[in-house]
Amino acid sequence: MRSALRLLLALCGLTSLLAACETAPVTGRSQIMLVNESEERQMGLQAYQQVLAKEPLSHDAEAIALVEKVGRRIAAAAERPPAEMWRAPHFRWEFKTIDKNEPNAFCLPGGKVAVYTGLLPITRTEAGLAVVIGHEVAHALARHGAERMSDQMVASVGVAAAAATLATTVSGRNRAYLPAMMAAVGAGATVGFILPMSRAQESEADRIGLVLMAMAGYDPREAIAVWERMRAAKAGGGQAEWLSTHPADTTRINNIKGWVNEAMKYYRPR
User: Fold this and answer.
1) What's the structural domain count of the chain?
2) 106: part of which helix (H) or strand (E)?
3) DSSP letters along 203-252, please?
4) Which domain holds residue 86?
5) Helix axes 37-54, 144-169, angle to 10 degrees
6) Side-chain half-sphere exposure of 124, counting CA atoms within 13 A
7) 92 in a domain, yes or no?
8) pLDDT tens across 26-61, in order?
């Protein structure tokens, strides 16, 4: 009876996962989505409001106008997908410039974009800024936030199942090693599944971002110089790639060089 119940639960879980599958823009990668879009956008709005409540907004009219201009052009490209490459998101776009010397930017679900002024000396030009905003909008367009939460759910179920199996199969003196075994299972899920998926999403955002900036009329070849400047701006060598949420700088730049020609098909200078 118990084995039949386990089989039924497994089939139900598989059916749910298959029903929750989506396809990422540009790359066509299959994604598991266990978080619906309305929940995702609500969480994005809440996080955006929290950031704006504690971070100082810029009063630099030139910087604000630049972020707004580039952001709107990237957003317009996102809302006009080429050849059914993705479903138009119809976000309620907002673009804010945060006065903080930090090379950072983000786009939360629903199209809530913020750029930190510390990023502008690295991006330098309008096209340079389009590289970063395109990358961040790509994360929202591909629903990477919801996918990340879904991956965590799947990993949690897997770790719990493995822990339960260990608890029932390990016996005798070996039970003293059970906590270490369970910790190893959790670490394995992080290094073997969560971190590689995060790096895959970052690379995917780079690739989608190149297409977005090209559609918006910005030369995607500019991305190579921007990421080289980003690498030069970092202090120290950073983590080993396999322990990082992001690809190594060399990996990222080489990948971008390989994707530029794909993006150039959509480039129409303005």
Assistant:
1) 1
2) strand 105-108
3) HHHHHHHHHHHHHTT--TTHHHHHHHHHHHHS-S--S-GGGSSS--HHHH
4) 24-146+195-264
5) 110
6) 9
7) yes
8) 999 999 899 999 999 999 999 999 999 999 999 999
Which residue of the set 40, 94, 136, 202 is catalytic?
136
Instruction: Indicate the helix (H) or strand (E) that contains 44.
Output: helix 37-54
Give the strand pairing for 112-116 and 105-108: antiparallel
Residue 176 lies in a domain: no
Structure tokens at 219: 């030369």
* Calpha distance 113→122 (Å, rounded): 18
Q: Catalytic: 136?
A: yes
User: What does the block give as tokens for 64?
Assistant: 């604000």
Q: Are strands 21-23 and 94-98 parallel, antiparallel or unpaired?
A: unpaired
pTM of this structure: 0.82
Confidence class for position 82, pLDDT limits 50, 70, 90? confident
For strands 112-116 and 94-98, give the pairing: parallel
Type of residue at 132: V
pLDDT of residue 166: 53
